[in-house]
Structures are given as structure tokens and as C-alpha cells.
Protein 1
Amino acid sequence: MIKVDISVALFLYLFFSVVIVLLMWVFFSFGTKMKTFSSEEKYIWHCTICDNTYIDSRHDDISQCPRCGSYIERIVEVGPTPAGGLETAGARGQDGTDNGGEER
């Protein structure tokens, strides 16, 4: 039988417990970071016709919605309006009007 002093046994128990906790922390923290998907906002498009949000990294100014096939022009944010919303420039609907085809 191997004779081990109580202080050595306590040290080994605490040491291996801390090592296991650190390994689990590293495994779970890096595992979740690699699995999350992050994309730049300029690649995210939103179709106002069918309310579909999709990613298109090949086009800069105009994109075609994969669900309904309508063409979407990039909306350029100009700045805040006095009402508190964002003023947009260059937003056009499928029929080429500024209001997206809606009648006022």
C-alpha cells in the first residue's frame, strides 16, 4: 500500500478538481463561440413584400428575395428626423415608386 500524507492527498484532490473545472470552462466557452453565427449588417437584407429576412453577401446595392423573387434596393440611412425616426434615401418598392407601391 502507498502511504500518502493527508496534506498531499488534500492538495492532489483540490488540484485535480480545479483543473477539471478549468478544462470544462474552456471547452464550453470556446465551443459556444465557434458555433454562433455572426454576419455583418451590410449582408442582411429584409424583403418588405413578403417580410423575409435573408443574407446575401454577393450584392451591394440591389438584391433579389429568394422567397418571392422581388428586387430590393439597399436603404441608405441619412440621419434622424425631428420626429425621432430615421430618414431614408433610395428606398424604392418593386414598382419604382418611393412609397413601395402603397396608395396614400
Protein 2
Amino acid sequence: MGLISSKINYERSYKPYHIAYADSLNFEQKDCLWIENSLQMKRFNIGFDFAFQNFEREIDHMELPTKGNNLWISFYLSPVFQNNLEFSIRYNRSISNEYINDGIGDRMKIQLDNKFNLFSNAMTLKYHVSIDGYMNRRNGYALTPIERYPVHQPEQALLENLWVPSFTVTSIIKNVEISYAMHHLTNIIDDYLNRSYNSNQIVFNKYYPSVTRLASLAIKWNFYN
């Protein structure tokens, strides 16, 4: 048996309503209990997290609930490999009861990391490959882009699952770090092959435009005294 660790946290907060809800100074109460558990073994690292969230408010405005709760369950698995290879799978499950959230019932993240040295250890090359899955989605609530408050949507249609692959490569030479990242690789590949990528648009709610892809280049220069 390996090393077992557990951590219990509890938090209660009182926050004022959004100004779009009420002109007077009213507060809403939120309670959160979360438990973090991890097991470190010779060949595997396993994590299991649990969180329960509850909220109450006095004002019934814009068809938003006055009370609700949410149960969050997270499972993590990471095999132990030789050298610098890292692989992990994380699965999250959200069960809501009149709770304002993003409507994503299940999340999954699979990632692979590794690094190695080149040119007689003069350069370190690291790469990160991941795929994020958003499943069992419903458009119950949407966030307005300007006021930033939730809006209830009467239609409760089940949305399509989303899978978003990403890739990052980083080169380190002495104190200079150069990173190039590509997010939503499916869209990038379709564009490169001159294929239609309308089916690969990421749409979270009707108030925001669809998300296609993102490529970024970053250069970081560390100065040491």
C-alpha cells in the first residue's frame, strides 16, 4: 500500500447581488465543502475529490433559482513511467439541482508530457499533448458578455459533445524559453487540408461567437543577478 493523504475544506461566503438583480444591498449565501484524497503507489498515482456546493438568495429575479446545490466528483489516474514521461487521465462529474452552472455534466482530460535534452544538454525540449472532452451539455444558463451575469434559457436541449485537442512545445536554452501552442487542433488540421470546419466550432452559449482555434508564440527571457 502506498502513501494516502486526505484534506477537508469548508467555506461560507456572503456576497452582494449583481446590480442587475437588485438596486438595494442584498446578499446571497454560498457554502462549499470539498474533500481531496490521493493515493501514491509504486506504479500509479490515484486521486479522488468530492465537493458539495449550496447557495441561497432572497430575490427571485429573471427566472433564476433562489436556492440550489451542486455535487462535484473528480477522479484522477496517473501511471508512473521511467525518465520524464508523464501521462494522466482526469474525469469530472457534475450533478446539479437548480444550481447555476455552465451546463457541462461530464468533463474528461487526457494529457501526455515529456522532456529531453539535445545538443549535449545545451537545449531542453518539452512537449505537452492533451485532449479536453465536454460531454452531456445542456444550455440551461448563459453568461452575458457585458454585464457578466447569468441568464436562464427556457430551452433545455442536449448539446453535442465537444473534444478539443491541443499541443504545446517549449524549447529552453540557458535563460531563454520559447513556447509555441496550438489549441483546438482539429480546426487547424481542417483548415490546412482546405476542408470545411463548421462542424468543429466550439459554441458554449448564444451570447458569444463560436471559438475556432488559437495559436500563440511566447518568448520568456529570465535575467539572473
Protein 3
Amino acid sequence: MAAIDGKLASDLSRLTTEIEELLKVTAEHGDERVAATREHIATTLKQAQAVAQEFGKEFSETAERTAGAVDNYVHRHPWNALVVVAAVGVVVGFLLGRK
């Protein structure tokens, strides 16, 4: 999951950089339509960056709460957790063995 998150962050960063480069290159054009489009793209880019930052913060907070809840459950019910892990292992082993 961390690899996917890293790739997504990398892709978004690269896209942001490329859009900013495009905005700089088109700054030289005096056409009103180009200027209006540039302004719209810049606004949309800023909004997307804000949404991405908020999503990242919410995702981190949710992940921390979930990890805390799982940790508490495992400490309160260690045998139940062991049974669940063993059952998942049996199912995965069965599915891998079917090849």
C-alpha cells in the first residue's frame, strides 16, 4: 500500500510540475482566451492541491485511529485475533495451493 501511495504522490507531483511549466510557457501569449484558460487552470490546480492535502490528512488520521482500535482489540482479545489470523492464513494457503 505504501508503494501505491508513493507512486500516486509522485505522479501527482509530476503532474503539478508539468501543469505549472505549461502555465509559465503560455504566459507569453497575449490572447484573452489563453489568459482566461491559464487563470482557470491555475485556480483548478490550487483547488486540487488543497483537496489532495486534506484527503491525505484525513487518510492519515483515519489510519491512526484504525491502527489504535486494532491494537486495543488484539490486546483485549489475543486468542480471537490469533484465530482470525490463522483462518486467513488457511484460506490464503488453500487459494495458493489450488494453482
Protein 4
Amino acid sequence: MTRPEFIMELVIKGYAYEKTENEIIITHKDKVWLDSTEEIPVGVEFRNKGEIRLNSLKFFSERTKLNNSGKIYLHSIKEFPSDIEFGKNITDIRIRNKWLSDYQFDINGINKLRYFSLLIKKGLIWQEQNLQSYYTRRAINMM
């Protein structure tokens, strides 16, 4: 999807945004539901004050920032780029049909979202079927 196409979708749905030379920053004061969006352009930052629903999105583009307040729904996601950024106000992420908070850890005190971000930044490939054991193995190896 091109930047103009993405901006047009935001305008049609009534979502507030700011545009810079390299970024589109979604500043809406509530939820942002882009359930039918299959791709987003490079350099999009979600800075809205509610949940994000991107249920048809399979891949994030480079320089995506998820700095919303609330939950994120990603029912079709297959992979994350290594430079994706997750903000500290995200309460949970639904990947396919499971919440990130549902995955159990054998190590106490690990923030799951921060750990998930670390795995992505290190270029490790996420696969839903072995995410739980992958978290545990990698956490032990990184200590």
C-alpha cells in the first residue's frame, strides 16, 4: 500500500494523523481499526489512545512503531521486522488466536512484551507454534 492510499484510508475512517517527510503518525484519540488493511507503508507510527486492530495484516513494513495505549490485534501476522518498536503503554498483543500474556514463562520477572521486542530486534524469527518454548530457551541462553 502506498502512503497516499494509506492516508486516504485514515481520512475515510476519520482517524487523526500527522504527516512528516518520512512518517505517518496516527494520533487518533481512540481505537484504530484497520481490519481489512493487508499492508501498511514504511514509517507508520501508531500513537493513538486505544487499541489497534490489524487483523488482515501479514507483515509489518520497516520503521513501524506501535506506541498506542491498549491492546493490539494481529490475527494474520506471520513475521515482524527487526526494527519494529513497541511502546510501553501496550497492555497485550493478540497474535493469531492467542494473547501474548497467555504464554507461560519458567523465569520470573520477565516482562513479556519487552522480551518479545528483544527477540525481534535480535533478528530471531517468530513462529507461533513454538513461541512459548522459544521464549524460555532464549531467555535462559541470554542470562
